[in-house]
Amino acid sequence: MNIAMLGSGFIARFYATTLHAQRRKDRILSVYSRNTSHAKKFAADFGLNKYGSEMEKIIQDPEVDAVIVALPNHLHEEAVLACVAAQKAVLCTKPLGRNASEAKRMLEAVEKAGIFAGYLEDLCYTSKFLKSLASIKAGNLGKILWTKSREAHPGPHSDWFWDKEQSGGGAIIDLGCHCVEISRNFIGKSIRPVEVMCWAATQVHPIDAEDHAIGLVKYENGAIGQFEVSWTFRGGMDLRDEVMGTEGTVWLNSFLRTGFEMFTTGKGENYIAEKAESDSGWLFPVGDESHELGYPQMFSDMFDAMEQGIEPQETFYDGYVVNAILDAAFLSAKSKKWEKVILEDWRGDSGIREEKSQVSYDEKYYLIKKEILPNGAEKVILKDKVTGEIKQKTIRD
Amino acid sequence: MNIAMLGSGFIARFYATTLHAQRRKDRILSVYSRNTSHAKKFAADFGLNKYGSEMEKIIQDPEVDAVIVALPNHLHEEAVLACVAAQKAVLCTKPLGRNASEAKRMLEAVEKAGIFAGYLEDLCYTSKFLKSLASIKAGNLGKILWTKSREAHPGPHSDWFWDKEQSGGGAIIDLGCHCVEISRNFIGKSIRPVEVMCWAATQVHPIDAEDHAIGLVKYENGAIGQFEVSWTFRGGMDLRDEVMGTEGTVWLNSFLRTGFEMFTTGKGENYIAEKAESDSGWLFPVGDESHELGYPQMFSDMFDAMEQGIEPQETFYDGYVVNAILDAAFLSAKSKKWEKVILEDWRGDSGIREEKSQVSYDEKYYLIKKEILPNGAEKVILKDKVTGEIKQKTIRD
Amino acid sequence: MNIAMLGSGFIARFYATTLHAQRRKDRILSVYSRNTSHAKKFAADFGLNKYGSEMEKIIQDPEVDAVIVALPNHLHEEAVLACVAAQKAVLCTKPLGRNASEAKRMLEAVEKAGIFAGYLEDLCYTSKFLKSLASIKAGNLGKILWTKSREAHPGPHSDWFWDKEQSGGGAIIDLGCHCVEISRNFIGKSIRPVEVMCWAATQVHPIDAEDHAIGLVKYENGAIGQFEVSWTFRGGMDLRDEVMGTEGTVWLNSFLRTGFEMFTTGKGENYIAEKAESDSGWLFPVGDESHELGYPQMFSDMFDAMEQGIEPQETFYDGYVVNAILDAAFLSAKSKKWEKVILEDWRGDSGIREEKSQVSYDEKYYLIKKEILPNGAEKVILKDKVTGEIKQKTIRD
Amino acid sequence: MNIAMLGSGFIARFYATTLHAQRRKDRILSVYSRNTSHAKKFAADFGLNKYGSEMEKIIQDPEVDAVIVALPNHLHEEAVLACVAAQKAVLCTKPLGRNASEAKRMLEAVEKAGIFAGYLEDLCYTSKFLKSLASIKAGNLGKILWTKSREAHPGPHSDWFWDKEQSGGGAIIDLGCHCVEISRNFIGKSIRPVEVMCWAATQVHPIDAEDHAIGLVKYENGAIGQFEVSWTFRGGMDLRDEVMGTEGTVWLNSFLRTGFEMFTTGKGENYIAEKAESDSGWLFPVGDESHELGYPQMFSDMFDAMEQGIEPQETFYDGYVVNAILDAAFLSAKSKKWEKVILEDWRGDSGIREEKSQVSYDEKYYLIKKEILPNGAEKVILKDKVTGEIKQKTIRD
Fold it and tell me: What pLDDT score was predicted for residue D359?
């Protein structure tokens, strides 16, 4: 696969490093940057022959099989439309748009053009995520009741991220897009997100965008997908997910506690752990940052899907749904009440009701709880089916 | 200290076990239960000479120095008023009332009577909590921005807990009272809780009360105290707190991951870990459950305060504030919007504004972020004080 | 209980702090130090009326019920003999002696005098230890095969510890005494320790004693008790135990990972975590150091046993066995081979053989292993009872 | 790269799965098995056109660029010599030989033939290992004093492993080879391993080989590399490494605690965690087992080295040194004393002495320790350079 990279910043470099590692067969062919010298530097660093500041030219190159959009958020649409014009497969970094309208236009354009389009939502491709998702789909957690996805760190690397106009928001758009899609996968992509409640504030930085937010996304089956995002966290990069189901629990920690712990007085010469806030004391590096964040697995899925002519796991439609949820979150943060998720184009299930299990204990009672006490006795807590009265009964002393 | 215990159930036994352990000088003298045979059994188990089903008689006993109210929620007020009538020091289990009105009446009664009154909020007395609170008060975390307190397990032991009328609610009143007071301590008890947003649902059990809820409590200084409570959790008892401040982070785990891990095929003969859901496989017991939950430290503070004629760390006023916050949470769960916390009797600070730090980089710019890149280069992200434009600047290559 | 404290240093203060906390009924009455001004300072700090530098006088005081020996190792024997002379109950800090001869003389003296004598081995009283020991005794781990106890930190607080003559050795005598007794409890105190292999070296400090050692203690039933001790560890105080049995595993972490994690930029004003090597970055305090190290539980057992006229869990005999094992360790570190543990006075079981389980699969084969493969198939690995040939057999596809 | 796979069992399948994943450009071309039907099945599963039971034929195929030896230990030498005869690059699984003589013959054969030869020591390629090794080489831990590498699980999957003749031993040869090479890397490959002390026993299984062993490898610079290996562990696969240096500490956990925790009541339908001993309760899967164990990184290094004409990180010479150390371990387990490591062919440094740091405090004293007390005071512990006397001195109150 020959790839054109649009963008030469932090994320473009991360993508390129991933693609050129571990003897993968896909190669980056060319790079575009608005700034020619940045493009040239990037090309030199990754051994590319082609670079430039004319986006269309880079995209239209007949040798290019696929284009990766690794540009600031406000430039995604333009880049995607250029790929549509050139009929080139396109992979777009997250978030897809700054809002659902932008995302919907991109979605419709690629679908109309019939080109392959993938949504580069890396955190839905980490090995921990993929294995726990498979386990959840196999029923090991029963019905999913609640999920929590958290991403918090001391703030992004590039200036444009901090500017609401260019990025579309603050921590919600930057980090919330990950969290929302993680929860959506665990709860089930076919379950409709119905409404959102969100708190957001600018607690620390001299910016207009929010640097801290908490949101609850309610799904049609009663499940809640919670997101916690912050640019005010101290201590490194906090990436954790939790899932509660009727039959089990999943806890994932993708960064600060992964089985790699290190103490150093700091006498060594350099850089130890990414996004760590110090280089001495107890540090918690990850082994292979790009693998831990899901990049290699994501690109494998994308290119395998392209070759097989099927959809990747994360599509532009997913990106659109995420944007629609975040739109509701922004609204809610202002209106201070739950806001509906507006999805003009909904492709999942409809009309699912919140069902509660009513387990009968016998003809007269529902079972609320059965428990074994420390002394070995067993008791049940029951509810009268008619009167609603609640009582306990020892069934073994 | 001679103590009369009102109640003979799960929590009364926990309190008694704590008080009679570790060579403490305070002793339980007598026990009251609505059911004489329960009182008799309790007295036998703990070596007490006095027991009975007449509450006033037990309380008025001249040998009694202090009364512990360990009764179901709907009986707290009656018991507290009986202590007031008898002019006896009273320690009441959590929550103080089923709602703020009830709590306020108890508060006013004990204050008018001039008797010692303590609020038995054990989780604000765990050793981890006390040490982290001291550290936070010493400034190690800077300004507190957000706290999260979580308590989740598969549901309470006694029937009355599951009945909304007797308990005053479900997981919110049972577990939320802990979480709210933990966060209030970290944020600062003098900071006024202003409004609450809460989601609550009955997801699993055949009951009217909520078995799962998430709430955000907003404080006057802009800090958020989040609570997560559930009776639907699978895997044991999940007790975790988190604090984010401008200068640091605290993560506490009080139950499932405390440095005690055990695997067993299950061939041993008995009971291993409390509230564990199985007795084989990987188990995570705590060493000393009562210590881990703060009971001994709580009673020490209560009786030391009584002897010294000062207030304990947790008072009836605290119990009242907690109830007022939970009242707003219940309202919000129904109205689906933020609800004001109604505190007719507020004794803390007023008029605190949410302040944002605007750190000047130089005359022209505010500093948004300073960072050291992997290659050792240093860059700053700045905001123009006049135009608001955001830009980055490399200050060392 | 009225207690005379011999010693006014680090450990004496730790003991006193523990005893005077949590409304315990036992009180320290007096303190002895070789240095009167130290005794006076200690008395002032803990509110004692009596202090002095004449040891016999402090011990012989008729008001004294029990004496705690919290002196440097080379002064234990003299202090214990003075208690014997005064017929006072004596509790001696660890290690009992600098070697087995010294310990044996103390043991014989207290037994001949018929006084109560307790061995203050606090780490055999932590809540985690006590609960896991109970679980192991209940059979949850099957037969114990191997234990490992590890204590490592950057070195002791007082000068005399670093002097081989006064302390009896280095890290082995200081820390190994804990580790050996922990393993002995897990394996079973009635099982005879047979021989020891030990490596020891002075890797870092300009001292004669070892600052790092690893030892293996072999017990008569084939179990191994491993100790790892060091004064060269960087990162705080590492206190971990592991147990492997035929039916299970126990992992205990008593200090650096107990569910209390904290990050701070260091802007607060003071002291956060004991034995931490820094006051910024990620720190791992424990909630209540004295509880986590077993002090309150240890003194409760000692005084309860005294009152009940029974033996405490840790006796002078235990202290003597520990010294005998450490003597063999010192010998082995020099001879570079396994050395016998010389126990002239052995009170446990004798003649236990190392037994191996030979589980029959059927008449022809022993079962080596049964396993379920990822695809659900089941296979067994068998050994021919006659020929000894090993083969595998699929028993379910 | 076209690869011939010799072997079709557990490890061959693991290698093949790794190589054909993540869009890698290297492909397996053919497979050899002693049993044609096994070879045929393997070929079908991995989409290979060529398979067979004639090893030479498979190796000599002109299309083959490299041969992977994934056969039982007693067949390594024969397979390597066949590659030598065919002048084909060879990658041999661990351990290289059953003993140092066998390994040395293989080493000499490939060197004489001038073919590329790599030692497939995967655990020296995990991402955590590689990053911590880089950090250690950069000096962040100072001088390495001690390392511990531990591998323990309930025993291997295939019958031949349990047969001493075919495998060369038990847990020592199976797991110890990993541990020894991990420690050797951390301590420095150029430092000569001098002698070994080892305990080994058959504690549980009806076999002749050891199922549990602990060993200490002493290096010329005084560092100790400890290994702990067992086939008797209950609870899954325990893979942990620790490193202590004068300036820091590293703790790695590669399997049971990697940030993936799951509880399930077991109602789901299938296989959750590899080598877990149950499918309900708390489980600790790893995200991507092959990545966590270092396979992809290992093959990348091997093929990159082949293409660049350089040595891979792990060579046949390394395999030979490991075997020589394990030979000494087996000897020591029998002789019960330290045994010399016999290395007829030593290519590292020689004559390194154990050096101790003697830090001067001033003209008169060496510094033993400097510490800050809880009250902020600072003290030093010193040793007189002439008399050797140790004393403490408060340098700030």
Answer: 85
Q: Where are the alpha helices (DSSP H) in C309-374?
A: 316-335
Q: How far is Cα A179 from Cα A322, in angstroms, rounded to an integer?
A: 9
Buried b (16+ CB within 10 A) or exposed e, D135-162: bbeebbbbbbbbbbbbbbbbbbebbbbb
Tell me the chain D residues in contact with residue A304 when contact means C-beta distances shorter than 8 Å. 23
* D282 pLDDT above the threshold of 90: yes
Q: Cα distance from C236 to chain A (closest Cα, Å)? A: 9
pLDDT of residue A50: 98
Note the ipTM here. Answer: 0.95
Helix axes D100-113, D316-335, angle to 10 degrees: 170
Contact residues, chain B, for C135 at CB < 8 Å: 262, 264, 268, 272, 285
Do C267 and B140 make contact, defined as CB atoms within 8 angstroms? yes
Mark out chain B residues that contact chain D at CB-CB < 8 A: 234-236, 263-265, 277-278, 280-284
Q: Cβ separation of A253 and D259 shorter than 8 Å?
A: yes
Distance between CA atoms of residues A316 and A324, nearest Å: 12
Confidence of residue C370 (pLDDT cuts 50, 70, 90): confident
Q: Tell me: the pLDDT tens digits for C205-227?
A: 999 999 999 999 999 999 999 99
Q: Is the pTM of this model over 0.80?
A: yes
Q: What percent of chain A has pLDDT over 70?
A: 97
Residue A251 contacts residue A245 (beta carbons within 8 Å): no
Q: Do C197 and D201 touch (CB under 8 A)?
A: no
Among C207, C234, C358, whose Cβ lies nearest the Cβ of D248? C234
D229: pLDDT strictly greater than 90: yes
CB atoms within 10 A of CB A344: 9
Please state the domain extents for chain C: 2-121, 124-340, 359-396
Per-residue pLDDT at D378: 86
C-alpha to C-alpha distance for C228 and B65, rounded to whole angstroms? 51
Q: Do A383 and B204 touch (CB under 8 A)?
A: no
Which of B131, B141, B280, B282 to mutate to probe the C interface, most C CBs <10 Å? Answer: B131
Q: What percent of chain A has pLDDT over 90?
A: 88
Helix axis angle for B36-46 and B10-19, nearest 10°, is 20
Residue B51 bridge partners (DSSP)? B31
List the subunits that have 3+ CB pairs under 8 angstroms with A: B, C, D
Q: Please judge whether D287 and A131 are an interchain contact, meaning their C-beta atoms are less than 8 angstroms apart.
A: yes
For residue A309, the one-letter residue type is G
Q: How far apart are the first and last CA of chain B?
A: 69
Largest CA distance in chain A: 81
Q: How many CB atoms lie within 10 A of CB B2?
A: 14
**Residue C271 pLDDT > 60, yes or no?**
no
Q: Top-level CATH class of C2-121?
A: alpha beta
pLDDT tens column, B278-287: 788 999 999 9
Counting one residue from A and one from B, how many pairs have CB atoms under 8 Å apart? Answer: 157
For the record, the structure tokens of C239 come out as 């206190």
Q: Per residue in A65-101, pLDDT tens? A: 999 999 999 999 999 999 999 999 999 999 999 999 9
DSSP string, A16-79: HHHHTSTTBS-EEEEEE-SSHHHHHHHHHHHT-SEEES-HHHHHH-TT--EEEE-S-GGGHHHH
DSSP 8-state assignment for residue D38: H
Q: Best interface-test mutation with B: which of D282, D283, D284 has the largest number of B CBs within 10 A?
A: D282
User: What CATH number does domain D124-340 carry, 3.30.360.10, 3.40.30.10, 3.40.109.10, 3.30.300.30?
Assistant: 3.30.360.10
Q: Is the pLDDT of residue D243 over 80?
A: yes
Inspect the interface and report whether the beta carbons of B199 and A199 lie closer than 8 Å.
no
The stretch C153-178 carries a mean pLDDT of 94
